[in-house]
Amino acid sequence: MERNDPAREAEIQSVRAWIDREAQADEARFVERLEQRRASLLKAMADLSEAQGRFQPGPDQWSVEEVGRHVAHFLEGCSRISGMLAEGRAPAEPRRMGMMADPQENLAGVVALVEEGFVRFAEAIERLKSSCDLATTYAHPIFGELNCREWLAFCFPHLNAHIRQIERIKASPGFPME
What homologous superfamily is domain 6-170 in, according to CATH? Predict the structure, then answer.
């Protein structure tokens, strides 16, 4: 879908409404959602060989490893931004969220990075209990201004998209059997 595509715009509005609604949930709900997404993502990445982890279904499509690196980095980025916003500080400069580091890690290393990202995200949820400035916001490139709770809520549909992406990769023609 392209920008200014009515279907894309409707999807963006739908996700933004979900973010706004879910950002009102208590921290226990955030933790429950986090554990569900963590379990689903790790299950999708489990028991894959290195060849399966590096398989790309097409020339411009990500592998499971690349999806995992992206997830680890966007979890860290959302956690950092949410933490700053909770304290009433907006990030000073734009940062490209979720960008992947050089592919130096093997699949097990990527899974470890994902686990670290989930730990940082859980810590960000915990910080909401003690301080949460809802007035300070930071612009997301698609969903606009988000506060500390909304940045965390945004991560759940984003994680869902990447879990589905991994499942599509694994179902692709040519995916290695081992």
Answer: dinb family like domain (1.20.120.450)
